[in-house]
Amino acid sequence: MAKSIHEFATNNAGMEGTLAARNPLRSFVRRAIRHRLFTAGFVITLILIITSVFAPVFATKDPFEADFSQMLADPSLDHFLGTDYLGRDLYSRIIYGGRFSLLVALLSMALSGLIGLLLGMAAGYLRGPVETGIMAFIDLMFAIPGLLLALTISVLLGPSTQNLIIALAIIYVPILCRVTRGAVIAVSQLPYIESARAIGGSNWRIMMLHLLPNAGAPVIVQITIGLAWTILSEAALTFLGFGAQPPAPSWGAILAGGRKYLNTHPEMSVFPGIAIAISVLGFNLLGDGLRDLLDPTLRER
Amino acid sequence: MSRFLGRRLIRAVLTVWAVATLVFLLMHALPGDVVLVLLDTVGAGSPAADKMREFLGLDRPLYVQYFDWLGDILRGDMGTSLLGGYPVWDLVKSRIPVTVELAVLTILLGLSIAIPLGIVAAARNGSWIDLLAMQFGQLGISIPNFWIATILILVVAARLQWLPPSGYKPISEGLGTNLLHMIMPSLSLALPLAAVMTRVVRSAVLEVLNRDYMRVAHAKGLHPQQVLWRHGLRNAAIPIVTVIGLELGYLLGGTVLIEEMFFVPGLGQLTVRALLNRDLPVLQGVLLLYSTAFVLVNLVVDLLYGQIDPRIRYE
């Protein structure tokens, strides 16, 4: 008797363990911590977010303030990475550059995600001529090299931060649309969608309430990787002079400004590049990690 | 085969036509007045602006302009540059071989890194070299190509003085001189490409590694290296070729940045000039050319499938 109570207790303890593990959030967190690359990406991204949100705290100087007595100063205790050709503190500009990059990336991915999700869901769920039309247009956009299209749109709209965000958002719509459509097609065959339709749910209701949450995982992964892509492209467009305009503290702008002083002051060319590479790496690792964690069948060997 | 080729060709032509239409609409539907670019001191409603609009034919209805433009393109006339009045085709044609050379060198360089690295990584799955390949694959796609170019100029050209920092020498001045000037531009584009391709080669080879025909090749006594390179690579070739075709878009976009940085007089440099001057006819022509190249290369990739894998039948 005593033994069986003991047995019961241990069994129960074991049950509790499995129940706890089945709590989806806790099990996700546990697997996430064990996934080393995801953790690395998460930490990098977190650092970028913290330094961006608290940029005024991390920066030691005003990133916009020119100081002509301190032009092209070497690194020192006062200016950690030296100053640029206007005497602006390079370290502070890089910190604010992160804030700028992150903001541009988040806004353009939000816009792109909104359009891509709507088009992708419409194509994947409504099928028929709607799908044919949308996908034909999307295929067309793939035929024009993305960076070139972004440059053209940005120049035609007139280079500014707002138009940069719009241009980058448009270029990423085809990718998000395709991923959404694929995920929606896979999900919309399932019985619960059929049931929702059978009880008279409207298309809009089914798309928003059932398809969006259940087909969302691949889209979230793609948006995370899109953030990395946007940071790279933002820097490229601004580097060429067709993105954000001065005095925006974009990493691409700092790199462009440093080209003239490459020989004498390579700091201006080296450090913003490292900042870009680390941030992009962070979002790429986060995206790949999320893919592993959210959908084990997509896992890359 | 010929029926497949015909259908595929028609589709490619239709795609190019649709892209041309999209580019045309983009240029004309988006705000930004060409006339004001040319006459930037006068207002939009001034008589001079109206006259210029009439001269350029911009006062006609959009559909008339569209069919006019399409007809010109079909006759090989890509319009005239807004600056200097040169025919767009004349500006473009001497630059095509330069960009093609850059693209070909980049792909060759990229593959000569990616194929050996990817195959060895797959063959020794989980070893340090596999780890190295994966890190390279992850890091390589995170570094901007124009920053690689900056660092190469700084280290290889300015500090070590091994290579000229920029400029271009045509092949007519000797292949050696030409290649010397092309090493850094193509390497800047090739490293990110190699990173992507290493991941593709690795996973494609891993995919075929345990197939029956690989076991048969081993069983009949072939040298392991021979099994890997002959049977493994050949069977992994389809995803590799597909991704090269798709990566061409990245590559062509990259030439814009890299040619501008190294003063390589190709299509990319022309694009930057056209963007700076709002020279829409040139921009239109370059976009059309880049897109046509992309469509054609991917058509060739489709046709290559049958060459790589004879089991693939076209109907």
TrEMBL record, chain A:
Gene3D superfamilies: MetI-like. Keywords: Cell membrane, Membrane, Transmembrane, Transmembrane helix, Transport. It is found in: Cell membrane. Its main location: membrane. It comes from the Bacteria. It holds the Pfam family BPD_transp_1. The chain crosses the membrane at residues 37-59, 100-122, 134-158, 164-187, 208-232, 268-286. GO terms for biological process: transmembrane transport. InterPro entries: BP-dependent_transpt_permease, MetI-like, MetI-like_sf, OppC_N. Residues 98-287 form the ABC transmembrane type-1 domain. It is a multi-pass membrane protein. GO terms for cellular component: plasma membrane. Belongs to the binding-protein-dependent transport system permease family. PANTHER family: OLIGOPEPTIDE TRANSPORT SYSTEM PERMEASE PROTEIN APPC, PEPTIDE ABC TRANSPORTER PERMEASE PROTEIN. This is ABC transporter permease. It comes from Caldilineaceae bacterium SB0675_bin_29.
TrEMBL record, chain B:
One of its GO terms (cellular component) is plasma membrane. SUPFAM superfamilies: MetI-like. It is a multi-pass membrane protein. Residues 96-305 form the ABC transmembrane type-1 domain. It comes from the Bacteria. InterPro entries: BPD_transp_1_N, MetI-like, MetI-like_sf. One of its GO terms (molecular function) is dipeptide transmembrane transporter activity. Its main location: membrane. Keywords: Cell membrane, Membrane, Transmembrane, Transmembrane helix, Transport. It is found in: Cell membrane. The keyword Transmembrane applies. The chain crosses the membrane at residues 12-30, 102-123, 144-162, 182-201, 236-258, 282-305. Belongs to the binding-protein-dependent transport system permease family. This is ABC transporter permease.
